[in-house]
Amino acid sequence: MILSVENVSLAFGGVKALSDVSFDVEEHEIRAIIGPNGAGKSSMLNVLNGVYHPQTGKIRFKEKTFSDMDPHQAAALGIARTFQNIALFKGMTVLDNVMTGRNLKMRCNFLQQAVWFGPAKREELEHRRAVEQIIDFLEIQHIRKTPVGRLPYGLQKRVELARALAAEPQLLLLDEPMAGMNLEEKQDMCRFVLDVNDQFGTTIVLIEHDMGVVMDISDRVVVLDYGRKIADGVPEEIRNNKAVIDAYLGVAD
Amino acid sequence: MPVGTLDTFPKLLMHHAATRGARPAIREKDLGIWQTWTWQRFADEVRALACGLHAEGLRRGNHVALVSDNRPQLYAAMCAIQCLGAVPVPLYQDAVADEMVFPIQNAEIALAFAEDQEQVDKLLEILPRCATLKRIYYDDARGLRHYKQPELRSYDDLLKVGGESLARDSTSIDSEIASGSGSDVAGMFFTSGTTAAPKGVVHTHASLLGPARTAAEMERLGEDDVILAYLPPAWIGQNIFSCAQAFVTGYCICCPEAPETVMTDMREIGPTYYFAPPRVLEALLTQVSIRMDDAAAPKRWLYRKFMGIAGRVGGALLDGKPVGILGRIAYAIGDLLVYGPLRNVLGMSRVRIGYTAGEAIGPDLFKFYRSIGINLKQLYGSTETAVFVCIQPDGEVRADTVGPAVNGVELRFSPERELLIRSDGLFREYYKNPDATRQAKDAEGWFHTGDAGFFDAGGHVKIIDRVKDVGKLSDGTLFAPKYLENKLKFFPYIKEAVCFGHERAEVGAFINIDPEAIGNWAEKRGMPYSGYTDLASRDEVYDLIRECVERVNADLAGEPEIANSQIHRFLILHKELDADDGELTRTRKVRRGFIGEKYGQLLEALYSSDSMVHVNAQVRYEDGRTGTFSADLKIRDAKTFAPAAATRAA
Predict the structure, then answer these.
(1) Does B145 touch chain A (CB under 8 A)?
(2) Contact B88, B110 (CB under 8 A)
(3) pLDDT digits over B243-265, tens only?
(4) What superfamily does domain A3-78+169-249 belong to in CATH?
């Protein structure tokens, strides 16, 4: 077990975003979080990488327990994420954007970087190599030098995934990686998520609305509704779960 | 270029390794950096692979399939196969699995090289239907970690085991190489089987290397030349450019990083020798035009101004014809400001020889590249002839011919105007298909191309159509519908054209206007219109199209052989020809016979004296419903010109 969430509750004033949610994530698995709009999925992800601090509950990551953590701490521990509405540096090239994912791994200090020749140059070459491997992996060689703002949406999503991967995370949080994509882009993205999981052994937690995608690629699924966990299990179980069907389709009064 | 004993690909490779071992043979961009294989490294890899393949049971005369994009490993594998006297059979990497069944069954292929998971999947899919296929070597292991099929083996593993056996015994592979001869089979290329089963075109070392050498000598290719290998390796052209000619001259082949990066790679590499089919050149020009339209006003002005100058003097300068001093100065300034940077953007700054072939190229498109100083020339050839049949020599470049025969190639035209070829580059046979071989290659060794054409006044070959489509006017004049249609289609305003004239006194044409081009044209004139049909019936549009037709006629008047096939009358069709209605093939070729029947009424009117025809046609909408359409179509006469008198004798 790489991550477990224990009895987490999160409230913004009177609004309860999450109430007493617990689940765990096994190493190497693809874990999906689903639920209707406003169910608390993104809040959950924000708790996991320390953007929000839950009022109660604990998070255990790699045998360490936290009641809350900061985003930079999460990143240093090996948690990387992508965002629902792409958060890239639009004016920078794909290469530079992905390079920023290596930021935490850079050891040279400000002075060395200013001089550049010597250790900083060696280090940069090393990082560039790692970044190039990810570029190759995600097949974005042709846009390497293109400013991100000029790219279509589907490719921007892929660049964001590349930047997250550049940090060599153990746990990758994907917030709606396929939202707004056409079928072909979705298929590509699915393949990349599966390949990342398989090739790098990265554990993946993802939020997704496309049920087909969720059922196809995830190992286990957590379902949230109004901030509560209403189901947890393998896709087959979730598909037939009464509470889930009710939450999605509504209940006849 | 020593020939003599270097009569096979492997022998040439070993020769290069010995004489220019440290020079680059092949480059590939990997992880963002160009990686170079020297000739020595290339030869080492090939020998090791050959040892590995020998241990896998590959013997003289066996066939090996290769499904890969352009990669050093692909070319190494091909040469390793040739070392053992076996035959590489490159297959199109974008073919679907089913299309690979026939070649593999036909050539009883046991071993196959596949580039990556995609290709491995295809081969595994057809494995049950290909009983002979025993082994698949993959190069890129990505995604294949969980594949447990016993047929799979990695390229690296083959290379490693081969390398070990090479270290133990390096003499037997060298004697295998030495025992090869020019008359051995060097490769087999499957023609696309759109109408019938594909045919395996068998080429020997001599038939591939001979023409490659002749053409290289003619163009003075040498070890300093560089080419970007970006077209499918299963196409014989890519094979000639990136294997045969490289092996003959020792120049360097560059493999792009990915199919999408070709433009960038081209700019980085700066090839000196370049091939592109017209559609690629057209796409590049479109990109340039679009970007120029987006540019700031002064830049657009500069571009227009200097492209005008280039159009006037650029081609002549390239041909070495006399140009006045003012023209030269203007062109030099233009070169500094526009043409040079443009060539650089296109990645063509260093192109010394550029070829285009495959289909007719529009004169404006062709002139554009020539005028900015790129030595683009036409050539003619086919899979069966190992490409080089005709090449336009420097200084004799024209948009509408394919040039005179290359040294060592004999050409003649049959009474039916079919081009016949005899040369040392002809294929040996169609594999296991003696009937087809006999049909294509007669007893005296003439290859029947199926293309119709004639020699123009300068001795250049002009290809006009497929023989089966060529007809005769009632006065006996040659009638080549596609030739006329192409000439019409080179005008941006004309999208499709269908010409009729077989066994008739004169030629008539149906025209489809290009709604976008004409639409723009109409907008600029402030002419409101509702749609295609409306535009197609306007008198202004008829006048515009008539000018185009008359320019074609003026052009035809200068070609004595077909001067009489000028277009006398035309009409603009009320609807766009559509593949869904069976009027075009799926590859957008007009189905002349079908259209002639379907619009029989229009055709009749075209050959009457009426200036108007009523059409009552059934149309099928996109949602599948049908409706009827009725309108009056105008028919117009076009001016024809007296044939250029001097050469009428032909």
Answers:
(1) yes
(2) no
(3) 999 999 999 999 999 999 999 99
(4) P-loop containing nucleotide triphosphate hydrolases (3.40.50.300)
